[in-house]
Design a protein that fits this description.
- The protein is an alpha+beta fold.
- It has 6 helices and 19 strands.
- The strands form 4 sheets. Strands 1, 2, 3, 4, 7, 10, 11, 12, 13 and 14 form a 10-stranded mixed beta sheet that branches. The chain has a 5-stranded mixed beta sheet with strand order 15-17-18-19-16. A two-stranded antiparallel sheet has the order 5-6.
- The two termini are about 25 Å apart.
Length: about 300
Amino acid sequence: MARRKKGRDISGWLLVDKPAGLTSTAIVNKVRWAFDAKKAGHAGTLDPDATGMLPVALGEATKTIAYLGDALKAYEFRVRLGVSTRTDDAEGEVLQTSDRRPSDAEIEAALRAFVGDIRQVPPQFSAVKVDGERAYDIARAGEEMELAARDLYVDELSLLGRPDDDHVDLHFVCGSGGYVRSIARDLGEALGCLGHVLWLRRTWVGPFDIEDAVGFDRIEALARTAEIDGLLQPVGLALADLPELRATELGAGRLKNGNPGQVLPGDVEYGDLAWASFDGQPVAVGRFRAGELHPERVFNL
């Protein structure tokens, strides 16, 4: 007989302003403990040294993570020019150096090649799988790999500032699977001066903005108290990019049982992906067909 998971049936999104030095998995585990929650997950891994927006889903909110897969993500980061490293960030050993320092105009011109649909090779130290192994495990063993280039949509890559000749601050908005470290590496190569990421901060993920995020010290201060539940955002917030349909009372009941349920007319066409709500709570996500939503995920709220 399977064991029942310990913890509370609590659902919602906690928007964490991730500090440097912790993995995304460590953040999720600490949040789950702080809320005494049965289930937790996150949307979009951040490197341990990265900071910023890490959306953590509790309970039924974990069912909405899949609908954030194509959401755009925004980053601000600093590139150190003139140095390439093994990890494409400041933690790796130096591989090469260059005395060349491009002008602002050269940098802005080079950035244009990184916008739109591009191909990007992940860093050697990344979670990409190679013959069943993580690339970072192979790299740590001292082996070099040829990682295949991947498709990436870049919505924006722009110059924020130039603190000095050696450093460039950039704003980056991309789709799923983008690596900031690869952008820094490839930009440095394109400019003929080399480069790596010095620091990076994620400022938003889809509908989640860093201004609404909670510092980790506050989460720790409120851990296992009644007040901590007040930090949660609604489950439906993650569905903001999908059209919403209002379910009838009968339709909501059918949807909750996994059956097609009646929804009120809305700005949705036959076959579109949408979500149904009732009494302000999400009931299901599914395809709209002939006045009904055919559920693929159901929420027990």
